[in-house]
Amino acid sequence: MKIGISACLFGDKVRYDQTDKRNDTIIELLKGHEVIKICPEVSSCFSLPHEPLEIKDDKVYTKSGIDVTEQLYKGSRKCIDQIKDCNFVILKAKSPSCGYGLIYDGSFKGILIKGNGVFTGLCLENGIEVFNELQIEEIRKRLSQTDSDR
Questions:
Q1: I want to staple 99 with a disulfide (CB 3.0 to 4.6 A). Which of 21, 37, 95, 130 is the partner?
Q2: CB-based contact 3:34 (threshold 8 Å)
Q3: What is the pTM of this model?
């Protein structure tokens, strides 16, 4: 199988604060599969480190209030091109770009709401199956399926 994954989950220090969220369980699960690492924020040319981003009213803002929606969409579209032939993607939970199911509410106070990040939304619009790193059992089951279905 060919799987796209948020680069920070694979140990790349690409998060806004120049850290990673390496997930050894997922890395182990992906052994023997082709892995495509992506980071919509890096593809959007945000510097490292950069201000935290959150989504409010379908727009992406920096903590200081700058609207960076179009910048993040531009980088997210580049990442879609990189993973369009993947069987599925595993993305960083709660992220304004990669969050799946829950994202921060735009107040920068750590409050979670239902929603998806910009890149996740584009994945779903393009028929790409999405998991976040908290869905280990679902990922394990999906990896046990043949790579002929998508």
A1: 95
A2: yes
A3: 0.94
Preceding peptide of 49 cis, ω within 30°: yes
**Tokens (6 digits) for 142:** 């999906």
Q: Tokens standing for 106? A: 């735009």
Question: Cα separation of 51 and 4, whole Å?
Answer: 25
Nearest to residue 96, comparing CAs of 47, 142, 60, 134?
60
Mapping DSSP onto H, E and C, the string for 81-116 reads: HHHCCCCEEEECCECCCCCCCEEECCCCCCCEEECC
Q: What is the pLDDT of residue 52?
A: 97
Amino acid identity, position 62:
T
φ, ψ of residue 39 to 5 degrees: the values are -145, 105
Q: Check if the beta carbon of residue 123 is closer than 8 Å to that of residue 117.
A: no
Q: Which long-range contacts (CB under 8 A, 24 or more apart) does 75-79 make?
A: 75/40, 75/41, 75/42, 75/43, 75/44, 75/45, 75/46, 76/40, 76/43, 76/44, 76/118, 76/119, 76/122, 77/122, 78/40, 78/43, 79/4, 79/38, 79/39, 79/40, 79/43, 79/119
Tokens of 87: 């069987």
Reply yes or no on whether the pLDDT at 14 is more than 80. yes
41 three-class SS: helix
Domain ranges of the chain: 2-144
